[in-house]
């Protein structure tokens, strides 16, 4: 089946096959990678290679640490304020959707004040992120946080905000590695792994060196970026299987031509879907065209009483995971790197057939 789930999401078929083949015996060891010590030289070599591959794929400058962390995306919602803000500091957050909102609430536990600089607005062409001109930045925030791709709302800020002097922090959970990105513009980038990288519960955090060593005293040690940087993400036992699988995904991605190639394919996949939805009277997408996500495409049927039939018939055609998030309803096609163009074309054919019989 083609799996359009938002996360945990479809992984590349070739990667899953390789993992299956290596499951019983990794590198001719006779045991699974899950049974190998993280201090074993073969594991350490694999782990270092995975980091190196990620650095290459994202062109991560040398003055950034790459950490393989626990606790998924939400773990980072608390790690960020604990690591680079004090209990009396103000921090700036853009609230562009559901995940920004969760991040804001979490940050409030650790800092003096969370200043929400702005958010989304309803325009005549759909839901849009407010213009940066109207953002109410605070004077000296410890950092500025935003979520470039809101997975649930299907709303994205494609341009990195300009003119912000505080370190930029971005939640890239649902867009990391989907297109080229200038890492040097950021203080911290983080991402839960379960969309474009690997298994859930795992997270990548990329931190500029000058932001290390600032953690609040009561930060839990496994979430302390400085400790994890010093220990090469092995302060405690890392999620070895997730690290291994992520490494396979990085190798796969390099073989596909990296983020430039992926970016072009992802644009094509998204354009196919949005163009069809916009031309149809039966399907609709509520987001302003400039702010549409290229990873998560939410859409509504003209009559939501037909949602159940849509999902059932889609599944019969091998199209799974299309149900929208429980907070917003409707449908959502998540089209991360592992979703081939072919999968989107099959979905489009199905949507056209369904429209013909149900409009
Ligand atoms: N941030 C974004 C943008 C997400 O899409 C998600 C989850 O889907 C999260 C954070 C939370 O990630 P996790 O469930 O790994 O904590």
From TrEMBL:
Keywords: Amino-acid biosynthesis, Aminotransferase, Cytoplasm, Pyridoxal phosphate, Pyridoxine biosynthesis, Serine biosynthesis, Transferase
Residues passing through the membrane, by range: none
Cofactor note: Binds 1 pyridoxal phosphate per subunit.
Listed cofactors: pyridoxal 5'-phosphate
Domain Aminotransferase class V: 2-347
EC number: 2.6.1.52
PROSITE patterns named in the record: AA_TRANSFER_CLASS_5
GO molecular function, a single term: O-phospho-L-serine:2-oxoglutarate aminotransferase activity
The protein's enzyme class: transferase
Pathway assigned to this chain's UniProt record: Cofactor biosynthesis; pyridoxine 5'-phosphate biosynthesis; pyridoxine 5'-phosphate from D-erythrose 4-phosphate: step 3/5; Amino-acid biosynthesis; L-serine biosynthesis; L-serine from 3-phospho-D-glycerate: step 2/3
Reactions it catalyzes: O-phospho-L-serine + 2-oxoglutarate = 3-phosphooxypyruvate + L-glutamate; 4-(phosphooxy)-L-threonine + 2-oxoglutarate = (R)-3-hydroxy-2-oxo-4-phosphooxybutanoate + L-glutamate
GO biological process: L-serine biosynthetic process; pyridoxine biosynthetic process
Subcellular location(s) of the protein: Cytoplasm
Gene Ontology, cellular component aspect: cytoplasm
Membership in a protein family: Belongs to the class-V pyridoxal-phosphate-dependent aminotransferase family. SerC subfamily.
HAMAP family with a match to the protein in the record: SerC_aminotrans_5
Assembly mode: Homodimer.
Purpose of the protein: Catalyzes the reversible conversion of 3-phosphohydroxypyruvate to phosphoserine and of 3-hydroxy-2-oxo-4-phosphonooxybutanoate to phosphohydroxythreonine.
PANTHER family per record: PHOSPHOSERINE AMINOTRANSFERASE
The protein's name: Phosphoserine aminotransferase
Organism annotation: Pseudidiomarina salinarum
Gene that encodes the chain: serC
């Amino acid at each position: 089946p083609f799996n359009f789930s938002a996360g945990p999401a479809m992984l590349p078929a070739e990667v899953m096959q390789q993992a299956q083949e290596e499951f019983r015996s990794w590198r001719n060891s006779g045991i699974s990678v899950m049974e190998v010590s993280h201090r074993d030289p073969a594991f350490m070599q694999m782990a270092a290679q995975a980091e190196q591959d990620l650095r290459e794929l994202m062109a991560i400058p040398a003055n950034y640490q790459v950490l393989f962390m626990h606790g998924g995306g939400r773990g980072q919602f608390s790690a960020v304020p604990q690591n680079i803000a004090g209990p009396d500091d103000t921090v700036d957050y853009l609230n562009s959707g559901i995940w920004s909102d969760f991040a804001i609430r979490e940050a409030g536990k650790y800092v003096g004040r969370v200043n929400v600089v702005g958010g989304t607005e309803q325009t005549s062409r759909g839901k849009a992120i407010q213009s940066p001109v109207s953002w109410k930045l605070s004077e000296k925030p410890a950092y500025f946080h935003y979520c470039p791709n809101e997975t649930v709302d299907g709303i994205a800020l494609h341009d990195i905000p300009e003119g912000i002097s505080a370190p930029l922090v971005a939640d890239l959970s649902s867009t990391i590695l989907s297109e080229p990105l200038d890492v040097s513009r950021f203080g911290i980038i983080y991402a839960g792994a379960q969309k474009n990288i690997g298994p859930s519960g795992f997270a990548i955090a990329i931190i500029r060196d000058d932001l290390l060593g600032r953690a609040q005293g009561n930060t839990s040690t496994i979430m302390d970026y400085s400790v994890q940087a010093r220990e090469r993400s092995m302060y405690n036992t890392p999620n070895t299987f997730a690290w291994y699988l992520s490494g396979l995904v990085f190798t796969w991605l390099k073989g596909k031509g990296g983020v430039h190639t992926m970016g072009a394919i992802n644009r094509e996949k998204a354009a196919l879907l949005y163009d069809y939805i916009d031309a149809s009277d039966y399907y609709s997408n509520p987001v302003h065209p400039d702010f549409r996500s290229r990873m998560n495409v939410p859409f509504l049927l003209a009559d939501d009483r037909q949602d159940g039939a849509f999902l059932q018939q889609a599944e019969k055609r091998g199209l799974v995971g299309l149900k929208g998030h429980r907070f917003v309803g409707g449908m959502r096609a998540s089209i991360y790197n592992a979703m081939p163009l072919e999968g989107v074309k099959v979905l489009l054919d199905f949507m056209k057939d369904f429209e013909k019989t149900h409009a």
